Amino acid sequence: MTTDTHAGGDVRLTGISKTYGSFTAVHPLDLTVPQGSFFALLGASGCGKTTTLRMIAGLEDPTTGTVHLGDRDVTDLPPHKRPVNTVFQSYALFPHLDIRENVAFGLRRRGIKSVKNQVDEMLELVQLGDKARYKPHQLSGGQQQRVAVARALINHPQVLLLDEPLGALDLKLRRQMQLELKRIQTEVGITFIHVTHDQEEAMTMADTVAVMNGGRVEQLGAPGDLYDNPRTTFVANFLGTSNLIEAEVVESGTDVVVTAGGGKLRLPADRCSAPTTSGGRLLVGVRPEKISLAHADDASTIAEGRNKVTGRIADTSFIGVSTQYVVNSPAGAELQVYEQNIERDPRLVPGAEVVLHWNPAHTFALDAAQAID
Length: 373
Ligand code: ATP
Prior knowledge:
about 35% strand, six-stranded mixed sheet, 8 helices, elongated, CATH 2.40.50.100, five-stranded antiparallel sheet, binds adenosine-5'-triphosphate, Spermidine/putrescine import ATP-binding protein PotA, Rossmann fold, alpha+beta, 20 strands, single chain, disordered N terminus, 2 domains, cell membrane
């Protein structure tokens, strides 16, 4: 796409908040979205992500705070004066216009007569060149959503806002469109801010994810970092499944040693997002796919230095690529284990005594004062 509107700078929210009467939908928030990034606002229904997006779009007036695009304060600008465009879940295409005219709409409204080249370029970008003369109802949901994206991008916005744009699509199409939107963003290079409640979607598409909960950003980071190093129980549980075990610190140094799950566990100090003074309480976490399962009879074959917890298999479910085990530890913790089905041990059935073991580097720790969500 030929555009010089990239040069817009970061999106910067400073102290932005929104209250409706006595209800605070978004608590004062500071957030910077780097220019050219694919940024996701992720959270459950009602967490304030759409309200945040609408304040960037100018569709909602903030109660406090400012919105900057680069050096420009756009807080008081109406939506149509901001260099942003929004794609909604409902594509809102004009049913009586063909695809070409739908995409051309924004240019025609601005009085631009010669639109052919730009429309061709956009249709090519979203790979719908051969559907230019179709009407919206002749396209699939995913194709219609691509028309909506083309229609928004033709105005060369500095930022594209996407409000649950894939929410109406079935799972398979949604997965395809996630990759497609990612490709389009890489190609055009402008900032995309994407609102979704689907953690897998946010992780697949975004460079940076802001996890929102109760009108606040709980944690911000690259998808892999959020997954590996959650700092709150909400983030640990919202992004995939976590095993969280109550623990007490017994040794603190470069490595922290805790008593947990009936034994001692070790983890790197830099993976603890809570104080690690001796006697302090923590919640120790490990992702289910990081854990290996050994039958208790094979316990002596487990390598030295691994974190180990004993338990009894309560349940198993075979889900093709992996088998999921629920294991009860004598200390009362219920732990999930996902094992790849490479060589399944036929002894690992409900009732079997097992040892769960994993690399200490895959362990993280959270503040035990938090409620487990
Ligand atoms: P969803 O995915 O369901 O859209 P969300 O995270 O995008 O959720 P928001 O739409 O931002 O959430 O809404 C945040 C909270 O603010 C919700 O509790 C909602 O009921 C409330 N809210 C939003 N708009 C208004 C309004 N105009 N008046 C009163 N309350 C509102």
